[in-house]
Amino acid sequence: MARDADSPFSSYRRDLMKAVGTGAVLTTLGGSALAQADDEATEADDGMADDEPDGETGTTTAYQVEMRISGPPTNPERPADFFYQPTGLHLQPGDVVKFVATTPDHNVVSYHPSFGMGRRIPTGVPAFSSPVLGWRQASIGADQMDPPAEMGGGAGPGDGQGTGTGDESASAPEPQTWLYAFEVPGVYDLLCSPHEAFGMAMRVVVGDDPEVPFETEDPEALPEPRVGPAELARETLTDPALQPSAIVEAGTVAWEELEANQVSPATETPTETAADES
After folding, report:
1. pLDDT by residue (tens digit) across 126-143?
2. Mean pLDDT value across the chain
3. pLDDT category, 193, cuts 50, 70, 90?
4. For the chain, how many structural domains are there in total?
5. In CA terms, which of 102, 197, 206, 210 is 20 to 30 Å from 149?
6. If 0-12 CB within 10 Å is exposed, 13-18 middle and 19+ buried, where does residue 57 land?
7. Is residue 159 part of a domain?
8. What is the span of the domain harbouring residue 208?
9. Is 18 a domain residue?
10. How far apart are CA 160 and CA 63, in angstroms?
11. Which is more confidently placed, 148 or 92?
């Protein structure tokens, strides 16, 4: 049976599509509106989503979170920095986040018992996971052999190594995107499964009540992996800047604002903590 064009669902879908731009295909899962970027879409996303809200359509506000790799690392235990930008984000129920694979091989996964992990999202919210995202296939030449350049190096279009023809006019690859509507108030801890060990995790606080049962400031107090966050993700999620109350106050928290990523200009290494200096 076809849905009524004037139904609340249809109205919400129109508002959501306006907020996230064109070239997206909507699906639903567990009551949360989702959108997966259409790799074969002929119209590119208009890029209106940003780290700050860019506009509202009804009650839907679109935000953007980039999934990045950068170097040199701010932590010697990482080969590079793997992170979400911003790493902390405060939303209101119904707000939509567009996750953008600025560099490839990332995904968005909720800490949830369905995945063998302790729940770190609100009770009643089903587990969710994006596919592993990379470059849109339509933006990669059919004869291209090597991946596009990342972090300013390596093979890529326009350098004679990324395509079979060495076409100097080749355009930059376009990132895949994935969208999720955060409808239920509470705290959501998310991870990138390929890079959790390197600290790629983030926290989303939905609504204005930052109280959450799993919160801790001490990595040692977290459950051991695989139930709890693994390796450097433990450090990310217990950073003072990602305390739920701090996220609510700040609105957004950049990766560079995390305590472990503070870099001293004199040494270009992470700033020592007061305990280390003593």
Report:
1. 999 999 999 999 999 888
2. 77
3. very high
4. 1
5. 197
6. middle
7. no
8. 26-141+169-277
9. no
10. 36
11. 92
Nearest alpha carbon to residue 124 among 178, 181, 185:
185
For the chain, the first-to-last Cα distance in angstroms comes to 70
Does the global pTM surpass 0.70?
A: yes
CATH number at residue 215: 2.60.40.420
Asked if residue 10 belongs to a domain, the reply is no
CB atoms within 10 A of CB 223: 13
Report CA dihedral (17, 29, 111, 238) to the nearest 10 degrees: 30
Q: What is the pLDDT of residues 49-71, one digit of tens each?
A: 333 334 444 456 899 999 999 98
Pairing of strands 201-206, 88-91: parallel
Exposed, middle or buried by CB within 10 Å (0-12, 13-18, 19+), for 204? buried
What the block records as the tokens of 230 is 């693994």
